[in-house]
Amino acid sequence: MKKVIVACGSGVATSQTVASKVQKLLKEKGIYAQVDAVDIKSLNQYIKESSAYIAITQPKEKYPIPVINGIAFLTGVGMEGELQKVIDAVS
């Protein structure tokens, strides 16, 4: 199963909210992927196993996987476009 990670400072509040929402949206579209919330300090260990990274804050590094705007899932602004990037990454 493909994996998507969502990271925020603690890996608890914001990233958990976004991870749950993305998981639900993918399931509604019949796409099954594991969506995990992690804290930003442990991000590098999860990047290697993931198909996409949903960032809550603007990343300072470049990553070898697609980086998706997590704020779109909180605000709804541009969410469909960002969701499509997730779908493309896990398909």
Kindly describe this structure.
The protein has 91 residues and is α/β, with parallel strands linked by helices. It has one domain (3-90): Rossmann fold (3-Layer(aba) Sandwich), CATH 3.40.50. 41% of the residues lie in helices and 21% in strands. The protein has four helices and four strands. The protein has helices at residues 14-28, 43-47, 71-75, 79-90, and strands at residues 3-8, 34-39, 52-55, 67-69. A four-stranded parallel beta sheet has the order 2-1-3-4. The termini are close together. The model has no long low-confidence stretch (mean pLDDT 93).
Topology:
Elements: E1 3-8, H1 14-28, E2 34-39, H2 43-47, E3 52-55, E4 67-69, H3 71-75, H4 79-90
Parallel strand pairs: 1-2, 1-3, 3-4
Number of structural units classed as domains? 1
The arrangement of helices and strands along the chain is EHEHEEHH
**Topology-level CATH name:** Rossmann fold
Mean pLDDT equals: 93
Query: In what order do the strands lie side by side in the largest sheet?
Result: 2-1-3-4
pLDDT under 50 segments (min length 5)? none
Total number of helices: 4
Number of strands: 4
Query: What is the terminal-to-terminal distance?
Result: 10 Å
Backbone shape: globular
Query: What fraction of the residues are assigned to beta strands by DSSP?
Result: 15-25%
CATH superfamily: Response regulator
